[in-house]
Amino acid sequence: MLAAARQLLSRSDPSSGMYRPLTLVALALFVVMCAVVRPPGSVMVFVIFLLLPWTWREGWAGLRWTLPMSAVSSLPLRLTVYAGQPWLLLLTGLVASGVILGVIAWLRERELRAQRNFARTLEALDVGGLRVAHAASSAEVVAATLRALEQLGVSEDIALVHLEREPRVLGASGGFAPALHLTLPALASLGQSTGDAWTTLRGVDHPLVRVAGVIDVVPVHLGEPQPHVRALILLSRPAGRAFPPAQRTMIDAVVRLFAARLAQHQAVQELRAAHEHTLLALGLALEQRDFETQGHTLRVAELSVSLARALGLGEEAQELLRRGAYLHDVGKLGIPDTVLLKPGRLTPEERAVIEEHVTIGHTMLERLPFLPAEVLGIVRHHHERWDGTGYPDRLRGEAVPPLARLFAVVDVYDALTSERPYKAAWSPERALAELERGAGTQFDPRVVEAFVRLQRRGAEVAQPA
Questions:
Q1: pLDDT digits (tens, 9 = 90+) for 152-205
Q2: CA distances for 303 relative to 57, 161, 315, 374, 419, angstroms
Q3: pTM score, two decimals?
Q4: Under CATH, which number does the domain 290-462 receive?
Q5: What is the CATH number of domain 147-267?
Q6: Closest residue by Cα to residue 53 from 13, 21, 24
Q7: Which residues pair with 236 in a beta bridge?
């Protein structure tokens, strides 16, 4: 009977706000029909054809209307068909109709709950997938993947483990959280797997991991399938039960997206590393030609990054400074050896030729599409002065690009503390004093203050106790 009722309900899906008024009209007609025709079993007929579709539409919420209507429909029967009959007969019909309505409401509520859960799962999968897809770094990919798995509600204990050198926890929640950023040597053997099959563990042998019971281990291949698994996702089983196929499918979808984005970011990092090594090689090649600046490129790169960090600049600015340091004097490749390698002080004419190296370098590098404008700004403007008397564009104050102002301080400091054919190397304290004298005229005062503070603090740390 339930199957027949379900088939009937599938044809009667009330979706408009007119259904309740129409049902009330039908109830009035039913009362009239009972008074005139006195059909037997009219309660069951009313329940099946009028009240069940309403109950099927709203689930438990529909019972607050359909049960009273079923009771009201019995009154005409008591006055007509069942007049003079025991009340028990009528109550039996009411109970039967109530049971039918209750069963239908229960079936519908299960379906509605499944639909709501499915909608929430789809939304979590969609939102989580977008976060993973739009993550701007490997760390953001890990965080977005962890959050997506949490929102799917697949497990209370989740860990993302990288296996590149040794098993290290990159992201964790629940009982795995205390092991975040730590190594889990017990997982090293799992990296030998080559397939996509899930495996299981009985706990993790680590004093900080608070996860008991069965743990499912999901392998992650970065990019195309590799001989070895590159990452693992650990999930504790909810209530000790295995994940149903639907949840495994969702987890695998998140894992595939995580693997694709992580592989993409690692490829970008490798490309950036190749670019950086190329730029560094170019700077070092210049040092082989200009013997008086041996080691200058690496020193100013390191000092620039340290100063940027002290000023609160982010990793992106630090990377831009590093590239600018590698290339800042690349224009000297276009300066004649008779001027560049002259032992002694330069004449004004020779000084003018040397000053052309910033525009030569800018012209050479602006043809490279992967170099940001900030790097080109360092190359062109690191000899500008705060008072506007520098070169090549005589920019003044804040008009000088910020990273160029920062690098100018570092570049001069290294030049002062390095030996040149025409001068001995200055002591660090003497060079810092010279920078302080140039603050507000040659250099940005705020940058000088931060650099001097950084160098003196470093000198204090380096002194023996």
A1: 777 888 888 887 777 888 888 888 888 888 887 777 676 665 466 787 777 776
A2: 71, 34, 15, 18, 18
A3: 0.52
A4: 1.10.3210.10
A5: 3.30.450.40
A6: 13
A7: 215
